Amino acid sequence: FDPIHLEDLDTIDLSGYSTVVFGNVFYLTDAQRDMIRQRVATDNRHLIWVYAPGYSDGTRLDPTHISDVTGITVSPTTIDTAPTIELATAGSAPAWVCSAVKACSLW
């Protein structure tokens, strides 16, 4: 595990890394998004994103920025009811965690 600041990411040799975790990249410039696409998201490398990468470019909040850097299509949604979470008891099969939004995650 090597912690590397985003500003230094374009200066290191990534050939020894099969996975890169982006922990806090809520703000990404156009140049940083380009660098990630062209330099990091290559060679079958796995990229792990933590919450809304690139959502801000410093001037506006835009979900298309997230889609642009991750390749995952995201869009805003509106929910009419409060989200709920259902967890499985210890030792049981995995439980689906669902809410009033259009997504579910397997725990």
Give a verbal description of the structure.
With 107 residues, the chain is an alpha+beta fold. The protein is 18% helix and 13% strand. The protein contains 2 helices and 4 strands; from the N terminus they run βαβαββ. The protein has helices spanning 30-40, 63-70, and strands at 19-22, 46-49, 96-98, 104-106. A two-stranded parallel sheet has the order 1-2. The longest helix has 11 residues, at 30-40. The radius of gyration is 17 Å and the shape is globular.
Brief summary:
This protein has 107 residues and is α+β, with helices and mostly antiparallel strands. The chain has two helices and four strands.
**Ends: how far apart?**
25 Å
Low-confidence stretches: 99-107
Largest sheet: 2 strands, parallel
Please report the number of helical segments.
2
The share of residues in extended strands comes to 5-15%
User: Which class do the helix and strand fractions yield?
Assistant: alpha+beta
Cα gyration radius (Å): 17 Å
Spatial strand arrangement across the major sheet: 1-2
Average pLDDT, rounded to a whole number, is 82
> What general outline do the C-alpha atoms trace?
globular
Percentage of residues assigned to helices: 10-25%
Number of strands: 4
